[in-house]
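Check this:
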Amino acid sequence: MNIVILAEFAVASGGAEKVAVESARGLAEAGHAVTYLQGIDGPADALLDHPGITRVPLHNTDIWERPAHRAAFAGLWDAAAAARLGAALDGLSARPDLVHLHQWTRSLSPSLFPVLFARDLPVVVTLHDYFLACPNGVYYRFDTQGPCTLAPLSAGCLAAPCDGRGRLHKLVRVGRTGILRRTLSGRRLDVIHVSDASLDRMGGLLRHHDLIHHRIDNPVRVARVAPADPARGDAVVYVGRLTREKGADLVAAAAARAGLPALFIGAGPLEAELAAMPGVEILGWRSPEAVWETVRVRARALVAPSRWYETGPLTVYEALAHGLPVIASTRAGSAEKIVDGVNGFAVAPEVEPLAEALRRLSDDATVRALGRAASDRYWAAPMTGAAHAAALGAVYRRIRDEHAA
């Protein structure tokens, strides 16, 4: 099949792009012809260097790096970006069988969908976040630091000061969500959920759209090596952006209460606050290889206590693949890979439940058993790029055939 993948970046700047890049490589290795449309100019991951992958830059810019008034209008409807997308599609040597969107909110707008529909192309979207339904994209109240309970675009939603970047962003994003809802009205759209929790939650939020739902795990690119020995570790480890919605502050507070050091790999707005807390070490960002070299040596467990309904953080699956126990938030989709007390713990994103789980890591025999189970259970059904590509191929063929019919 001829597949077009559309993402903002061609490097793993975040989970969505990482999945997009690894999906492209897996599909190419499975024999599909892949065109990777890169929304914003920048470098490309070495994984895209494959004879079955053609990378086409769209030369867009990040909407929020433009002057405020231009950014606001572009976020609602960017005709110029849509025209560039149309020209790129029309310039392809072969007609695509399908277009797969991974991320489009940073450099495009709802204007991309009429471009695709006008060319009678089937469209599938992987739901890495909640932007298809929720204006701020994470279904989380940054003002109250808790999950949202409001219906998107309801009166309560419109009034809520929930956006992490302020009122202007909320206003633009509300407008974009309303335009998106009208743009997709009556049009079939296939969506891929990366966790069962996402499927359950998003099904209700997206009732305004004519959606066909599919469920496929994200790919995890981890070579199988000897499992780590977490009993040798000296700290609990957090990997990712240091923000409150991802629970970085919970890790530091719970680790201090449990009497364990906390190691943070990443950066973000909570860095100074965390650095002032006892027992905290912050390494900053590292390359993926360096991250796991460090984690395999230092971690007694990986901790991912997200306060928002995170769809499926990749670091959780990568840690399990390395034979490391995981303490995951019960709000995150990744918790469904955790068997509580077997390969880690699934806990509420609150200090005391998290601290109680961390206290159980003080026993080397317990930690070693959790690590062995993490490795055994993961590799019994690994989330490899090949498995991901095979699942995508089956969904693509069904969509193509139904579209043709």
